[in-house]
Give the backbone structure.
Amino acid sequence: MTRKRPSGGRGGGGGLERLPDSIIYEILEKADLETLCSAACVSDTIRSSVYHVLSSLPTLDLSSFSPDVETLDCILNRFGGGLRSVTVDCLRLHDSSFVTNFLGEQIQELNLFKGSFLSHQVLASIGRACPNLRVLVLELAGGDSPEMFKRNLTHMLNSCSCLESLCIKIRGTELDANGFQSMELSLPKTVKVLKLQPLLIQDAIHFIRELRDDKFFLQNSTRLSIPVCPVSPGFALQSLSLVLDIISDELVISITKSLPFLVELNLEDRPIEQPQLPYDLTNSGLQTLGTCQHLTGLSLVRNRQNHPVSFKAVNDMGMFLLSVCCRGLQSVTFGGFSKISDAGFAAILQSCNDLKKFEVRNGSLLSDLAIHDIKEAPCSLVDVKLWSCSLITSESIDELASSNDLEVLDLSGCRSIGDACFGTISSLHTLTTLNLGGADVTDVGLANIGRGNSPITRLCLSSCKRITDRGIYLLLNGGGTISKTLSALDVGYLPELSDEAIFTIAMVARSVTELCIRYCFFVTDASLKALASGRRLEDGEKLIRRLDLFRCHGLSVKALGLLKKPLFRGLQWLGVGDTRLTSKGENLLTQICKERPWLTVCRDGCEMGCHDGWQFHKFDCR
Amino acid sequence: MSSSLEKNMLILRSSDGEEFIVPEVVAVMSKAIKNMVEDECASNTIPVPNVDANILAMVIEFCKKHDESEAEAASDLKTFDSEFVNRGQEALYDLITAANFRDVKELLDALCQNVAEMIKGKSVHHIRIQFLGYQLFEILTSNFIWNIWCDRDFD
């Protein structure tokens, strides 16, 4: 490499380049990966500095896009033995050879997301390559036989004897869930955080009972004459998250007995039929959670994806008991508690003084009354999510706004929320995420946010059917903070929206990197053209990274021409399912994908970035 | 002059001959000066070559603030730092050179952080114009991944 360093000294030109190497390293060490990559293209001198910095970087996070094998190999090749933590989006990886080729004993943390096409042998490879792993997060799609999965899992657990955090999610196989059978046999005792999905209840109960080291417990309690002092069990498990077929009292009781030191418990079930007693969660099951005195995070969710089910055997009494015995809760999520009314939810809100996060899904009986009077108690809520709670109105929002720290407000599916709350919302000076999907919001409400001071970065207006182009204009041209801070905008399912709105977004919201306009039928090629023309990256402008055009029927096949270089510079994810771009332009689309190796094209209608739906990908995203 | 000098004060002389009277505790925030003082090879006047009066005054201002505000809230100091380093590029590079040469770690950290922030999220073109002061017309041939984020485009 030729070095063209100016001779140094004042006035020698070259600005940055006249600084000594050590200083350039120091500057580059403080930059993020994206900046490093840009800097590497600036000049030969800086590029060689970037090489140097990369080779000693401890953390590599590639979760923002989906690399193919060649790209990933190239990247990993550049990193040296200093790498401790690696995060990769595996959506486009077909084999796990990168694990054995590039990762080694020094790796302590490994996060592999969206492994649609990865075989379960990746577990064995990880065990072989990274014996010193402390943290492992793995998302795989189902497919291989449970026996094979079990064999690979056991291999990995036997190799990685100092694991502290283990999270394995197998998606797409809800019924064939016995892969985790008898994994307790080889689970390292160092594990503090454990997340498994999916798991059958009988396996879970068996496995959790095995975690209790009875012999150890008995020996100690007979030797020591003082009976009160709880003896630490063999496992120091502090956080447990399971996705099961059914949550029952028996399960909760075995958890509380085996793991009395639990700090965080997350349980979700997806029954295929309404559970019947005694195989269901009841008030007394909730009460036993009081045994876990250190519990600060609790999430109990009954998912309706397989059948319209709910926790029918739990009523307000269960919540009263829980609120009395678990006052230290800081984060709660309740999903599918159809019998719990305002009294039950109010008990939790008022007893748990440290509550930071409050989430209720499908709380069909939850109304403003539960949240009324929240001002009376000291309230420090940071994160409030009320999904599909159709009785909640704007009044609740006024109450919630009494918390000065509110950052996340997610009201998706709360269809009784109207414009009245926006005066309050726009004055929340810490709010960064606002989800109003399906609310009864109009242009008037948006105008209010547009004038406000909330530093909102993520805004979802999906399915707010009364919003028009005018609303989007008022939102972004109101002179408020949002036009500068907004980075993710979802205006999908808005039948009134036309090109005018997209022009406004392209012109004004110049820091938006994620844009969803799925199901906007009146959006045409002109919109895409406005978005395509390059931004210049100066003055804080950002490139559009992710764009969801699913079912934008107004787009013609000619719009494909706008996806060619150099337009849409930096695009990383594109959702084009069910449009003319896929039905008539498949060849051209394949060509574009070849030209842009870092672009993931999703034809399946996944959510933004294939965050949900990747497990069903049938064909390559290339 | 040395007779009138209070105890624990040092005189620093810049490259262009200007002298600054500085408390020792402030002066020794520069490791280079600290070493000289500790080795007792420093007379009353310590020459600071390669650093002119203008830049030396800035460095001293920074050190003084950091010395005084040990008890102050860290956030106040952060605000001061970010305002202090917010300067034109020439001064910035001179300061960096001085901080590096005199080994003033806090100042160097704050300055490097500032430059890193200035580069963050900028295009290749922009960095070239702003930080190198020239436009490189040749495109760096590369079969490599640098442009994953900027998509192999040199505006």
